[in-house]
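During the reporting period the student researcher (J.K.) took over the structure-prediction task from the postdoctoral fellow and processed the backlog of single-chain submissions. One of the processed entries is reproduced below for the supervisory committee.
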Amino acid sequence: MTAPPIASGRVLPTLNEDGTRNWIRPRPSPGRWWRRRQVVAYALMVLFIALPHIPINGHPAFLMSFPKREFHLLGWTFLPTDTLLFMLFLFSTIIGIFLLTALFGRAWCGWACPQTVYLEFLFRPIERFFEGGYAGSRALDRERKWFTPRRVAKYAVYLVISLVLAHTFLAYFVGVDQLSVWMTRSPWEHPTGFFIMALTTIAVWYNFTYFREQTCLIACPYGRWQSVLLDKASIIVAYDARRGEPRGKAGTTTGDCIDCKACVQTCPTGIDIRNGLQMECVHCTQCIDACDAIMDKIEKPRGLIRYSSQEALAGKPKRLIRTRTVLYPIAFTIALGTMLTLLFTKETADVTVLRGLGAPFREEADGSVANQVRIKVANRGSDDARYQIRIEGVTDGRVVAPENPLRVSAGEMRETSVFVLLPRAAFTEGAREVTVTVTDGDRFTTSVPWRLQGPVGTAPATTPGGTP
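J.K. obtained the following structure tokens:
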């Protein structure tokens, strides 16, 4: 049996030439960019933990409640009737990311993406603590020791952190109050919530224990979008080949790059930044800090690897005004402006009028025709309200409203039914136009034109004996 072919050169940063996993253990390079990213990363971690606990207008700062079909964001409440607002919000977010990428490259990946933030500033520091730093982790990898006491302890700490992150993630969908109740009760009382929490815990633990940078290289499509989101004037983390090449030892007449490979050893995705712009680069700036430290040692100017653009590296002037830097802000302004306009001019309540379930009308024993009108009222205000319901245009009939006024708590939605009874002769060709009015005093009033359904034609004539 012949041996499998061996690739010539490494195919992927995480794959050795013989097909085995190349475990990336980046050497940390503390520097000015690292310290700035630390501040941003730990601020984002605190924000992620705190956001479900911060109340604004009686609701968490962020809560996406699927059972109640509500989305609370920084004091605003989005209901199922807010499809347009929600779409505008998503569109604004997507265009904002496109604009950010066009201007500053993959700033999101390197500075704010949860995968990068937690991996580089929480899980990998814990790994280095348990395994004896960069050299200790590399030694364990070479010896293929995956279950030493140190690594088992690391896995256990990872599991605890994964549990915390999974519970926090769940709080974004059920709220901290409901989550607290679940945490003090048996999982059998809330199996769905417990299953989601357990599945999320396993996914987080597996991701940061095993999958790691492969999430960026394989699973996330954002790196592949660079070809359309970036142009040659976009800011990227780049190596200045004109200054660095040809490579050689310090003190020679070659370029400034001494081929120390510090930039490769510190890269969290295992690439060589000197090979140019690559899909795997997340613009974490670790290679900048590593290279700057080497330049200081050999007394060369910093910036051999720096934030730049492909045009700037080629000696061309900077171009801020470009097609995408004009079109993206226009699209972003239109989408966000429309959303904010609709949001701030929206009424304090939403009213939806629906027909009754089943038959469109019912003929009663006394000869009258009954229509069920279902009325949904969503209270967007910050106070509880009582909504008075009127059916206008039925002076020749009567209205039965089991619950009128309708009490609706702040931020809630309730439904009630109103029954309209009219004589058969009140309908013209099977229809009768009325108006449904819902009012909350001086704060809110709306009127909805509505068509009641009835029989077509007149009632059949009867003889005095009751026989047609």
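The committee noted the following: The first strand starts at residue 55 and ends at 56.
J.K. will present the remaining backlog at the next meeting.
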